[in-house]
Amino acid sequence: FIKELEAQFGFDKPPLERFLTMLWDYARFDFGESYFRDIKIVDLIAEKMPVSISLGLWMTLLSYAVSIPLGIRKAVSDGSRFDVWTSGVIVVAYAIPGFLFAVLLIVLFAGGSFLDLFPLRGLTSENWEAMSWPARILDYFWHLALPLTAMVLSAFATTTLLTKNSFLDEIRKQYVVTARSKGLNERQVLYGHVFRNAMLIVVAGFPGAFISSFFAGSLLIETIFSLDGLGLLGFESVINRDYAVVFATLYIFSLMGLLVNLLSDLTYTWIDPRIDFETREV
User: Quick one: DSSP state of residue 276?
Assistant: First the structure.
């Protein structure tokens, strides 16, 4: 029986051959089958991927929608009372992990100890298929409200401070003084000249922000809110010792991280053609 198990999982072959076989299989996205679910792992990942992508994408868009206007306002009113107290709120939000916000939201709004306004499990209701399209959209965002709130509260701090610092750097440059001397008002200077240059690093960092939110939010948030995505799949696979699924999810996460880093560099050169990596000195 032991010999049969070794042959089944390839342990009857030399380590180098097993390693090369694994590389070839992973290059073709052939991860084998789950030990417990009796399904191809690539099909299992494809089934769970939309949930994680949905969380990561909406979280990144909401984070940018809050961070960019807030960062611009903080840069314009640098040193004011508004800048000071918002910085305090940002630091506190950044210091508290997202999963603690998630637990607090469940206690307050999901039937924990106070109100019971939001659902606690899944992305859709059981009768979702029978709903009209407007009702489906509302139901979808109703289920997303608490997970996204928990993720955004702990994620917008970095982008806000990055936006503020970028605008402060640009506001102090000579071309801004020249634009003001030509008679342009502050709105024309800010959005006609400063905005494009200041937003280069923020916009180019969008792919990286998406993938970081995809990584950070997928495990704990999906587990807490019982969202059937890659994070929950990886967690359950570790608990069940479904090693093939664990390695496959790690491979997918790593591959996406590499591709998004490349996309971030390409975005820099697309937004600002003056950036040329080939002419940089080593």
Answer: -
Q: On the CB side of 37, how many CA atoms lie within 13 Å of its CA?
A: 20
Task: Kindly list the distances between the CA atom of residue 185 and the CA atoms of 70, 160, 180, 182, 220, in Å, as whole numbers in the listed order.
Answer: 21, 24, 7, 9, 47
By the 10 Å C-beta count (0-12 exposed, 13-18 middle, 19+ buried), 204 is classed as buried
pLDDT digits (tens, 9 = 90+) for 46-77: 888 888 888 878 888 888 888 888 888 888 88
**What is the rounded average pLDDT of the residues 94-113?**
81
Task: Give dist(CA 61, CA 206) in Å, integer.
Answer: 9
Residue partners of 144: CB distance under 8 A and separation at least 6 = 54, 55, 58, 123
Q: Which residues have a Cβ under 8 Å from the Cβ of 94 and sit 6 or more positions away?
A: 154, 157, 158
Task: Count CB neighbours of 156 within 10 A.
Answer: 23
Spatial contact of 167 and 72, defined as CB atoms under 8 Å apart:
yes
Question: For residues 102 and 221, is the Cβ–Cβ distance under 8 A?
Answer: yes
pLDDT band at residue 35, thresholds of 50, 70 and 90?
Answer: confident
